[in-house]
Amino acid sequence: GKRQDEEDVPGVAFGYVHKGLRLGTTEIDRLRGSDLKNLLREKKLILILDLDHTLINSTKLHDISAAENNLGIQIAASKDDPNGSLFTLEGMQMLTKLRPFVRKFLKEASNMFEMYIYTMGDKAYAIEIAKLLDPRNVYFNSKVISNSDCTQRHQKGLDMVLGAESVAVILDDTEYVWQKHKENLILMERYHYFASSCRQFGFSVKSLSELMQDERGSDGALATILDVLKRIHTIFFDLVIKRVRQEVLQGCKLVFSRVFPSSSRPQDQFIWKMAEQLGAICSADVDSTITHVVAVDVGTDKARWAVKNKKILVHPRWIEASNFRWHRQQEEDFPVKVKKNEKDKENDVAAATDAANGKV
């Protein structure tokens, strides 16, 4: 709502989001930060999708070859079949062929990614293709970027995407248009269905349309890339989860006192491993670098050492609670109580043994 001259810069146009919308760098950064939090919460990344030769192939009607005409390609495209793959764009005098597997690709990718269309084509063309790919408007909404939105001539850039560059994956058949973002790019094998497409790229062979053939869907380019995207998504969030978990008890160095059965190897115990997964360093012996002594009895030598040396004395359930809540819990909420009788001691030892064995 601010006047434009009150912002830090004149702003960048985001007309594809809303006509006339301009955003300053401060607001762009805020929106990207907010979007990143939402994406990570939903366990999604960003996927930027090119159109021509990546998801589709199009041709002008006047570029249709004689062989294509003889095979009745225009008649096939004129059939009103929403589940088909060959369409006529009447107002643009064009035919468009959807790449095999594209519908399943978009459906499965939408579960892992927030998706954008980004094309060097005109806005009207991009919107028409988006309607074919997403007739119910569930995948892209307004996230359709065309040549009129680009901030640099003949170049695409993530500056037009209201999402963090660090979580963006790009699918495009043309590398040189992504000069600033090659590390985010997965280069696609080009889809040449029409004869004009083959001619454009210098292939003196019959096109798929002229051969009355097509890419195979189940193991074609999009199916192969979908498997790659699934692996990227899994690895990314495995690393994120591991990193976030390791921050929970980062900076804590623990020593355990009579928490495990005397006959066991401490490093093999469940609670020891849990503490390490949370980022803590576990030790078998006390020294000046120890921050916490984990015990169920204040009467042990290590527990007394903790009190004497002003270290934190805490019950094993502190580790469990921190693990469940993904946040370091207040140590004072998990005190090691003085034993009133042998029954109390037996109960605490049993609880610690359960924790050591992974029973919660």
TrEMBL record:
Its EC number is 3.1.3.16. Keywords: Hydrolase, Metal-binding, Nucleus, Repressor, RNA-binding, Transcription, Transcription regulation. CDD domains: BRCT_CTDP1, HAD_FCP1-like. It is found in: Nucleus. The keyword Repressor applies. It catalyses: O-phospho-L-seryl-[protein] + H2O = L-seryl-[protein] + phosphate; O-phospho-L-threonyl-[protein] + H2O = L-threonyl-[protein] + phosphate. Gene3D superfamilies: BRCT domain, HAD superfamily/HAD-like. InterPro entries: BRCT_dom (IPR001357), BRCT_dom_sf (IPR036420), Fcp1 (IPR039189), FCP1_dom (IPR004274), FCP1_euk (IPR011947), HAD-like_sf (IPR036412), HAD_sf (IPR023214). The keyword rRNA processing does not apply. GO terms for biological process: response to salt stress. One of its GO terms (cellular component) is nucleus. Interacts with RAP74. This promotes the activity of RNA polymerase II. This is RNA polymerase II C-terminal domain phosphatase-like. It comes from Aegilops tauschii subsp. strangulata.
